[in-house]
Structure to design on (1328 residues):
């Protein structure tokens, strides 16, 4: 099915590098070496070849075996601080888990749950006693954990979780309890079978008073895998995809755990039951805790992006070998990729994959630097990071859903066969728009940050409440560029607003269109919010009245951040031919975004009738320019040959494509 | 999981009917009784309850067992002429198969293959000797057939199939042969396991001359299921969905069949090898044959629509029980359905489901009448029917993909659990956009009909060839309304083109906007085609240059046909309250279509800047108007309680929804 040759690193001397390799290097970014190592690891070991294993028991065993192999190689150490037994390279940790998505999404999710979420909770919410006891066995898989946050009744609004952890000073224990059916922990990865211990989020109650949601380490199974007394786990069974992840449910019936099992970095209870915390506000405390877990969200976005790259690589390579319908006068039938429609289906999605990839790199870099800074983090930077993580997670997972769907359809009946991999990519990633924060809720979170000038007090409020605090003057964050300041300003100064077609290919023009849209949407959203509050009788009605406008503003913000990252990414590319391709891809990305919101640009007179037609012409033009480079562009996405895992690509024509790809 | 009470017919006396029941009756259309019988059958027999059976062997057995049960009830007789042993009610046949989609899509596809495609080939391409021999056992399942058209190398361009059927006058046999790997029959439902006989499409060769694609009855397996000599079948294995359908591949190594096995209605070979046909042109003959098989395409569109209704019913009912986030001052958390965004995610899709449902009804009705007319069919009517079938199949299957995806996401994590059914609906229907004609190719077919004034000679041409024939004056078909002429003209006369918000709710205005767009796009496409031919050097380049414009024109045409059907559907509704809801839904449909193509309307000055903003306001307004009726609207979609098959709908809140639904 896939080539079995050993993975050959693309790190050659400059003279030997292909354009595709330069593209990959640019798109790989700061953790290029980590990505190269992962490509080699996943390619050279047949145990990590993409597989289709629909049976739950088989898939779960396979995933766990893969995890043990990774653990044996010390794969997880990057995610933990040196003093806790890791290497403290957050960027590498996030990047390695993302790369697993190219092999198998169940593996990526399972690794993300064990090391990112469970391990992350221990690492970030715990203190020395927890680090000593749990970090090493978590890395080595001697301790299999799960992350028990979501409940049947509460997923998006986790502040309202119902599970209680009531302190009993008599025995110096917390009593973990599920008081209602809706308080059952649900969809928890690992809870069905493998996890022995859970990081349980519950309302901490002591002396009859609740102090909000905290996290507790709760053993749930014995050595043999039987539920411990008071714990009832059950299996979620089949899902849309991710068969290798054993999602399950947990009910607690007054389960007692030692006081020390509270992860007490942000809140503690003394032996006699007195609560203390360095953060006074319950809401702020909660969001600080959740904020430290932002890594999970970053990883999910990155992994969705990786899956989209695999799908687009498969569909594009198929379109470069599959012919259908003969044009008059031609000896052969026409390649799918030669149809303009087919180019328009795939190339803009490839462009967006690049765009989001560059943005993801900047996010991971910011996350890494922030975590390296330890306790010296500026809270504003932390919140900005969380906002960007939320926005990019939404953008990238939506992109993945769309790109994989299009890739599947673009391969026709062959695309529907499991052996060609696209259907599993679609099924496995489908939940990514939902978990680690529902995309609509996350987009709203972005809007909240934009509209409230980061006022601390709004952070703990529900959606219809915080809107009341939207300030007349909008947060400075709008103006703040996320990528290389100076380049961006230089480019912006070259904007051309004339009516000629070519002006839309001007990067400064594109950037200013993105910026103007964002500013206009945010400021008008703020005004409408205030107006609505005066008119409508309830805060909820006011919120509802402008909800779509507010979400639109947030999406415009994310688009701008992504475009800026693309521009900075081009600047970082060291090869002229590769730069030129990236520049054309960037045009295609920018024009596609404008095209999708073209009615808005026209309605608000940011685009004249004449110019509006030039947008579509520009997209067609760039598709034609990029068509001859299609193989190079997907090779640049950095999915190794062996990880495509698509049977049809071994059909006739594959060799020709492979030759193109390897053409130096 | 589902209610176990017997299905209660909604056919009560007028005084007792609920608004939802009036909606269902209107949407059910001419075969309302067939639908009611199917609802009762599928609800009252637990063997037809929706199920999740991922294992291939189990799923295939279950589906076959269900088929046998249906056959035992004479389920398939409607699809065959009275003189062949059926009842000759084509509309009922299509409608019953469509209704199976509400229970299980594998069953629908398997039934569609056996009775619609295989049976349809026998019925429509065969003559008396075939009808006598095969129709009865096909109905009774004593003969299990498959429809072997698609090959590994050719799916969309079936005129270029490679399988050969060479006549040998010595033995008076045809020799069926697969000369190349790409000529292998592929993805064939039934070929992996159950089918004993195949309707094989192959190039008929006699006396060294090819006469194009014809259909042959070829036995492929013996009684015990072993491949017959020269036949090699294999199993496609797992697919994205449809586990109950045993798709497979067939290779023929010089398999001999009697001369009489040629389905010889449109072309025959005499004993000594002379070819004869009532249709001289090879291409026209081929399209005439394929045209008689249009029923399959109609059924696929209808079934996709049925699956979308199930998904939207589930997601809407979930949104009416699920609460998340508490608004300040409210005692309870807010219902998902009360968020404007959530309304905008689901209600326009519900509106589109109604719209496409009405259009599908008209299509089935036209198909029925045409088939009833037998050989007296006006070829223009036949081609118009084929064009509409192609367009609606594309529109409805794309709608299903989108609606089911949105429904899944709108249910969050719960939506990802197999027990809640949405993921299987998505996986099973995903191939509908591809099979029975790839949607892009079908949309192109619509354009072809529109642009070439139905010139007979262009019918057999490939896409880049026929464009040369595009006439300066566009086909009259554009002007021809598809539904109740008179009502439409009356309504059209009331159009209001003023700038007031309300004017966009005027049906005449909406209709004329749809019509104007279609006319403009078609006439400009024709002009551009001609211009492109003068400028570009090859027909293919000319075609490629305007491909997106041409597809846009076809989509605009389909949108108009659908809107007209909706208008006629409202007219046929006999209850005032139901009419009012339908009218609001129709506004939502029309405005959603305009919103999605708003930039075009503005670019071409069919919508002013001021008015353009009113479109969005109108959509929000209609969402708010329809919100209180959400339960009624989905009840109107006509999916019986027992066929929802979604575990989460038995959760808290379901009873309240059920009460609302039954509120008379």
């Amino acid at each position: 099915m896939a080539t079995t040759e050993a993975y050959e690193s693309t790190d050659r001397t400059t003279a030997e590098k292909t354009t595709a390799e330069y593209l990959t290097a640019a798109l790989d970014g700061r953790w290029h070496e980590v990505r190269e190592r992962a490509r080699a690891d996943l390619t050279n070991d047949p145990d990590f070849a993409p597989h289709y294993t629909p049976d739950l028991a088989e898939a779960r065993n396979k995933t766990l075996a893969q995890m043990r192999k990774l653990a044996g190689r010390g794969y997880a150490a990057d995610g933990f601080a040196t003093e806790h037994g890791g290497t403290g390279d957050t960027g590498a940790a996030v990047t390695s888990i993302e790369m697993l998505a190219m092999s198998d999404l169940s593996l990526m999710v399972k690794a993300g749950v064990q090391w990112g979420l469970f391990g992350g909770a221990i690492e970030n919410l715990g203190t020395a006693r927890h680090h000593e006891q749990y970090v090493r066995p978590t890395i080595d898989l001697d301790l299999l954990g799960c992350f028990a946050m979501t409940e049947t009744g509460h997923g998006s609004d986790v502040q309202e979780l119902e599970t209680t952890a009531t302190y009993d000073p008599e025995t110096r224990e917390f009593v973990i309890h599920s008081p209602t059916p809706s308080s059952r922990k649900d969809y928890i990865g690992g809870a069905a079978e493998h996890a022995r211990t859970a990081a349980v989020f519950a309302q901490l109650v002591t002396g009859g008073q609740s102090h909000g949601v905290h996290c507790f380490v709760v053993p749930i199974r014995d050595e043999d895998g039987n539920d411990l007394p008071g714990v009832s786990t059950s299996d979620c069974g089949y899902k849309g995809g991710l068969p290798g992840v054993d999602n399950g449910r947990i009910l607690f019936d007054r389960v007692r755990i030692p006081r020390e099992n509270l992860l007490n970095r942000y809140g503690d209870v003394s032996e006699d039951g007195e609560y203390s915390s360095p953060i006074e506000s319950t809401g702020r405390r909660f969001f600080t805790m959740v904020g430290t877990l932002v890594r999970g969200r970053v990883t999910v976005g990155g992994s969705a992006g990786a899956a989209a790259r695999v799908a687009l690589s498969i569909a594009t390579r198929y379109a470069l070998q599959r012919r259908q319908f003969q044009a008059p006068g031609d000896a052969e039938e026409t390649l799918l990729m030669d149809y303009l429609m087919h180019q328009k289906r795939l190339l803009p999605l490839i462009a967006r994959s690049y765009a989001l990839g560059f943005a993801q790199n900047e996010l991971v870099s910011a996350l890494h630097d922030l975590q390296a800074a330890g306790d010296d983090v500026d809270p504003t930077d932390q919140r900005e990071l969380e906002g960007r993580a939320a926005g990019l997670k939404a953008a990238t997972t939506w992109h993945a859903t769309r790109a994989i769907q299009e890739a599947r359809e673009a391969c026709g009946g062959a695309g529907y066969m499991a052996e060609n991999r696209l259907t599993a990519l679609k099924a496995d990633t489908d939940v990514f728009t939902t978990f680690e924060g529902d995309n609509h809720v996350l987009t709203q979170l972005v809007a909240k940050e934009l509209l409230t000038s980061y006022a601390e007090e709004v952070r703990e409020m529900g959606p219809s409440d915080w809107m009341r605090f939207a300030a007349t003057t909008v947060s400075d964050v709008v103006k703040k560029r996320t990528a290389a300041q100076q380049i961006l300003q230089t480019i912006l100064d070259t904007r051309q607003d004339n009516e000629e077609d070519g002006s839309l290919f001007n990067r400064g023009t594109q950037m200013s269109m993105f910026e103007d849209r964002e500013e206009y949407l945010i400021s008008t959203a703020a005004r409408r919010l205030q107006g609505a509050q005066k008119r409508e009788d309830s805060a909820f009605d006011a919120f509802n009245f402008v909800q779509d406008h507010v979400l639109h503003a947030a999406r415009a913000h994310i688009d701008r951040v992504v475009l800026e990252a693309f521009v900075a990414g081009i600047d970082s590319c060291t090869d002229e031919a590769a730069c030129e391709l990236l520049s054309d891809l960037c045009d295609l990305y920018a024009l596609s975004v404008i095209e999708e919101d073209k009615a808005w640009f026209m309605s608000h007179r940011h685009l004249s009738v004449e110019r509006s037609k030039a947008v579509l012409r520009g997209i067609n033009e760039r598709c034609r320019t990029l068509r001859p480079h299609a193989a190079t562009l997907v090779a640049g996405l950095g999915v190794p040959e062996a990880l495509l895992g698509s049977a049809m690509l071994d059909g006739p024509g594959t060799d020709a494509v492979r030759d193109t790809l390897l053409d130096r």
Observations:
- Chain A touches chain B through 82 residues (CB under 8 Å).
